[in-house]
Amino acid sequence: MRIPLGVIVLTTAVAVAGCGSKGLRELQQPSTGPDEFLVMPADPLTPPENYTSLPTPTPGGTNLTDQNPQAEAIVALGGNASSLNAGGNIPSSDGALVTASSRYGVDPNVRATLAAEDAAFRKREHRTAQFKLFAVDRYEEAYKKEALNPFEVSQLYRNSGYITPSAPPGE
């Protein structure tokens, strides 16, 4: 009973093709679905303590389950959520911080700009990336020149006299 060579090769190719898992390192947009950063889960509904003292509904207004990401971020970073004014703007006490951090300008379309620049970079760096016989880590391949060696950087800082945290032994 002899199995043709073509069947063996085809079976091996299918088996090897199923071994790869790109996960989060896949650089291509998987779909045109929603932006995961725009989805905000609602707080769980809780019954009021007294049903007779409920406020009147305000169509288009806010309620207890609405998210307020700016106030939640302020609280998470150790601030006071009441310092956020009603318009959702930055409080006047943080004016110096905002001025210093935006001294070189603020791009309201930073995500779109960065995505376009990154796509152009990957296209320029890897024109032949689509011609691969075996699965490769495209993330590693595209950003290899941009990566820092943490051991070299740590040693550079130590040689310069800076105090650095301990690190595991080098490679």
General description of the model:
This protein has 171 residues and is an all-alpha fold. It has a domain at 131-166. Helix content is 35%, strand content 0%. The chain contains 6 helices and no strands. It is extended. It starts with a helix and ends in a 12-residue tail after the last helix.
Give the key terms.
6 helices, 171 residues, single chain, mainly alpha
Would you kindly provide a brief summary of this structure?
The chain has a domain at 131-166.
What is the element layout, followed by pairings?
Elements: H1 5-17, H2 69-76, H3 95-101, H4 110-125, H5 138-142, H6 150-159
Largest sheet: number of strands, sense, barrel closure:
none
List how many beta strands DSSP finds: 0
Give the DSSP E fraction (strand runs of 2 or more residues).
under 5%
Helix content: 25-40%
Mean pLDDT: 75
Q: What's the tally of helices?
A: 6
Q: Order of helices and strands, N to C?
A: HHHHHH
Q: What structural class do helix, strand and pairing data support?
A: mainly alpha
Q: What value does the Rg take, in angstroms?
A: 27 Å
Shape: extended
Note the quaternary state here: single chain
- Give start-end ranges of low-pLDDT stretches: none
N- to C-terminal separation? 51 Å
